[in-house]
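User: Structure with zinc ion, tokens only please.
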Amino acid sequence: MERASDIPLCWKGSMAQQKEERMATRAFCQKKINQLQRSQADLSVRREKHTHNRPPVIKPAQTLAGLQVPPQLICLQKLKTFNEEMKKAAVEEFHEASGCGACLHNQATLALHSFISRKKSQVCAQALEEKMQSHLYNKDSIYLLGQILREVPRPEDDPCIVWKAMMERWTSD
Ligand SMILES: [Zn+2]
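Assistant:
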């Protein structure tokens, strides 16, 4: 069972709208017919007055000029157009992506891009982890102590060589 709120806006009062539209169109057409009849009557009167038989030229634009379209009819036409646009938009909303080639292609491209970026970040994280492990291993306190002991002069070394090595280090630093 459809509730009143479920009925699309464009359908609400469509009967009343149609009736109103018909009435406005009828009034407009009646007005036009009256004006045309009046102008034809004027022409026949003029024809009787004139002696020459040249047929009068009737320009439709001239006879219809000055006739105004009722604002009610314009409003109704605008509403009708709006309703039709809404209906079109509602239909377009139900776009089936699974059956559309362009959508499927875009989805595949997106999936590929996300896969590549995910793998790239995984590889980067792994490389960083390896670097950190190697740094921790190389800068271990026992390793550093061994490195210091290797560089420190031994008691049996020749003092001249020790001094020379120390001077070289100071000048290089
Ligand atoms: Zn699509």
